[in-house]
Amino acid sequence: MLAGTGSDVGKSLIATGLCRIFLQDGYSPAPFKAQNMALNSYATPDGLEIGRAQAVQAEAAVIPCSSDMNPILLKPSGEHTSQVVLNGKPFGNRDAYSYFRKEGKEELRRFAHEAFDRLSSRYNPIVLEGAGSISELNLRDGDIVNMSMARYAGAGVILVADIDRGEFLQVYMVR
């Protein structure tokens, strides 16, 4: 799993590169991001929506993209409101406060785990990508995409940082 010290530190680009490297090394990789926030989405071959980064990562792995690669997509529709796309289909609009409350998180986590399990039954390795910063303690209890997903997958975690922001890179393994 690629986790980050923040948004826009290069997680998506590195995940794309890893998908291609694993493919060139003879593996059958697939990308996975449990929850993504993006204004624009990409239509899968079966007409479902996923984040554009996961579509590019699937292309790097030379596999068709699927909603299992990004089961929860948040598409901002207002200052504090997003459309929730679940398994590629619009599920409804939620304000940030109600979405980030603990109620309902277990159901969303279950959707993410089921999508991961479907992918991991067909591809190996799965290149997981976290979202934002893993150090946002206020979101920790309801985390779907970062460390809770790494624990579920039994994935090693690489922390991605942006040196231009004065950050550094460390590698942590979570088992």
Structure description:
- The protein has a single domain, classed as P-loop containing nucleotide triphosphate hydrolases (Rossmann fold, 3-Layer(aba) Sandwich), CATH 3.40.50.300.
- The protein has 175 residues and is an alpha/beta fold.
- It has helices at residues 11-24, 52-61, 96-100, 105-122, 147-153, and strands spanning 2-4, 30-32, 35-37, 41-43, 49-51, 72-76, 81-86, 89-95, 126-128, 157-160, 170-172.
In short:
The protein has 175 residues and is an alpha/beta fold. It has five helices and eleven strands, in the order βαββββαβββααβαββ.
- Averaged pLDDT: 88
As a percent range, the share of strand residues is 15-25%
CA(first)-CA(last) distance: 12 Å
CATH architecture title: 3-Layer(aba) Sandwich
Major beta sheet, strand line-up: 3-6-7-8
Overall 3D shape: globular
Topology:
Elements: E1 2-4, H1 11-24, E2 30-32, E3 35-37, E4 41-43, E5 49-51, H2 52-61, E6 72-76, E7 81-86, E8 89-95, H3 96-100, H4 105-122, E9 126-128, H5 147-153, E10 157-160, E11 170-172
Parallel strand pairs: 1-10, 2-9, 3-6
Antiparallel strand pairs: 4-5, 6-7, 7-8, 10-11
Helix pairs in contact: 1-2
Task: Fill in the keyword field for this structure.
175 residues; alpha/beta; Rossmann fold; four-stranded mixed β-sheet; three-stranded mixed β-sheet; 11 strands
